[in-house]
Amino acid sequence: MRHTVDSVFADARLQRAFDFLARSEGTIEADQIRLTLVPAPPFAESDRARVFGEDLRRLDFHPVIDAIGNVIAPYDTFGENPVVLAAHLDTVFPISTPLEIRRRGRIIHLPGIADNGSGIVALIWVLRAAREASLRFQRPVIAIGNVGEEGHGNLRGIRHIFNAPPWEGKSCDFIAIDVGGLQRITQQALGSRRFRIQMIGPGGHSWADFGRPNPVHTMCSAIHRFTSASFAGKQGISFNVGIIRGGISVNAIPSDVIAEVDLRSVNSNNLDEMEAHLRKVVAEIGGAGNVEWRIESMGERPGGKTSPQAAIVRVAQEVTRKFGVEPQLDIGSTDANIPISMGVPAIAVGAGGASGGVHTSGEWFDPTNRVFALQRLLALVAALAGLA
Q: What is the reported pLDDT for 3?
């Protein structure tokens, strides 16, 4: 591995690509903002997919859009056992979210600018730098701008890819590019389960019908009991009630209420425990509150782990150290969950810079030193695919 990584870094073409990236930060930043300003909530990514595809065509790639909206572009051809780079096109924000830029020094404030504006612009510019330097690879390299990573998307884009890969056979090395940072190498997939809970009552007037079953009161009681459970302090888990909605007026007893719940853990037994407790609490509190109730699964992200000894992880660590940074193996929920769960060598890496406020209206991205992550990504591809 040392010889492979060293020889890649010694290649004059790679160094030309590095120089090209270093000279291009201003244009990279402009492209990132331009792409982020195209709204792309889950199930409505088509406008951003079109813009992403047009960018690739201008670089003399030949992208295709598959049946559910993924944009797929081989560097040369599809072939067998490719290195696959994927960045999700969608954001967590609904279509109504105002997309207004604010700046503070180099920091850009804009919903989606980091997650995943930084990832999709990284993918485009790594391909562009490789083309500019006339890099050729021994293995196929395939770029994917995928749909459906966030929220209700439930990783549908990458699920679709791995159900019927556009390359020959099933084998590949998979790299998801997601949010900023340089040192992170996510090789453990954080599993999650998501549920929609509905409680239904007769409704009524807040005065005249006071005392009738109130689904909101009952839902709040259920949420309180669930979040007060004994597992709440356990390491390696999280739970979140992300949405509560229902009712029509402050002076009307609601006829129904919905809550959406996200459960996460690195351990499937923990997920089983949390799900069982959630179902028990909803049944008990719903029955005591004399409301109808139901629980619907909204999706599940499988967990798993790419071994730290796998070639893709070891090469990623070695390449990262070339930039004077000690890599950190990490746990996360990304598009890499799907191939990891299937035993396919897969990781997720950051797109450089720094970021914060992700999944909030105050999301920000600082592009300072972004170039090192772009160079790291290109070197990683070159080391895995081999330079021809």
A: 59
